[in-house]
Amino acid sequence: MSKLVVVGTVAFDAIETPFGKTDKILGGAATFIGLSASHFNTEIGLVSVVGGDFPQEYLDMLTSRGMNIDGIEVVKEGKTFFWSGKYHNDMNTRDTLVTELNVLADFNPVVPESFRDAEVVMLGNLHPAVQLGVMEQTPAAKLIVLDTMNFWMDSALDLLHQVIAKVDVITINDEEARQLSGEYSLVAAARKIHAMGPKYVVIKKGEHGALLFHEEHMFFAPALPLEKVFDPTGAGDTFAGGFAGFLAASGDYSFENMKRAIIYGSNFASFAVEKFGTERMQTITNEQIDARLEQFKALTKFEINN
Fold first, then answer.
1. Pick from 49, 72, 110, 179: most CB atoms within 10 A?
2. For 40-81, how does the pLDDT look when each residue is reduced to its tens digit (9 = 90+)?
3. Which of 26, 92, 34 is nearest to 240 (CA)?
């Protein structure tokens, strides 16, 4: 069985949307990535940090989903990373209300020895220095996938460029792609980002789907139209988990298989937004996943008779 290393936050979120609000609930990039990737036949090692306030039941849930948590450091005297946000009515924009780095401020990732030979590494959205540290500990990786955001473009651009130069795939949203490249056209933006190092560029467009670029090739995957979106907080990380998990399980990193991975990522993201936090990702079944894949297939399948 192949191995997938996932580095990212395991955290608390407090969320308010037009559909309601929550107190502190389980969140974090690595949590969403891991829950999504756990549906594939791959060994998953989570690398993160939490405080002494993090409930054992959450760690037990991750373990019960087949994830190895040896790489999650528990700082007994510290507090877990906490983020709070409020979404506007369109659900595409949000205001950050609180960000408390807590134990994340001094996080020095340690990849367990048993995962240092991992074939696939998923670098969740964290400081580029942390991402570089994980790459140094996983020299056997055949595929490195990077997720980042505009915050690091503003505050650690030089380090971020070092990371981008070393990865195989970068996944960012359309706004971030424009900022990173200085180009408004996403095709032009992808070309510039390609030149920075990655073989594949994935540009996420939220409810409008995702684009995959590789050299002169391009692929578009739609997002599934949903009647209700309760909480989009972990959608991008869930997408990344489905994408990386599928590739790790298949061991095929070709453009054609990347297209399939994009669809799987979009499929999982469509579930994540249906409930607050990780609630929906903890309950989906393989039958539901397969049924929704058929819906994705039907969205874009058509014939033209000449």
1. 49
2. 999 999 999 999 999 999 999 999 999 999 999 999 999 999
3. 34
pLDDT single digits (tens) 125-152: 999 999 999 999 999 999 999 999 988 9
Closest by CA position to 25, among listed 230, 229, 225, 242: 230
For the full predicted model, state whether its pTM sits above 0.70. yes
Closest CA to 15 of 233, 226, 229, 206: 233
Q: How many residues does the chain have?
A: 306
Relative to beta strand 67-75, strand 2-7 is unpaired
Name 72's bridge partners: 48
3-class SS letters over the chain? CEEEEEECCCEEEEEEECCEECCCEEECHHHHHHHHHCCCCEEEEEEEEEECCCCHHHHHHHHHCCEEEEEEEEECCCCCCEEEEEECCCCCCEEEEEEECHHHHHCCCCCCHHHCCCCEEEECCCCHHHHHHHHHCCCCCCEEEEECCHHHHHHCHHHHHHHHHHCCEEEEEHHHHHHHHCCCCHHHHHHHHHHCCCCEEEEECHHHCEEEEECCEEEEECCCCCCCCCCCCCHHHHHHHHHHHHHHHHCCCCHHHHHHHHHHHHHHHHHHCCCCCCCCCCCCCHHHHHHHHHHHHHHHCCCCCC
Q: Tokens 């061991």: give the residue.
A: 251
Could you tell me the two tokens for 166? 């070393």
State pLDDT tens for residues 255-305: 999 999 999 999 999 999 999 999 999 999 999 999 999 999 898 888 888
The span from the CA of 56 to the CA of 115, in Å, is 23
Q: Six-digit token pair at 306?
A: 């000449």
Residue 72 near residue 10, CB atoms below 8 Å = yes
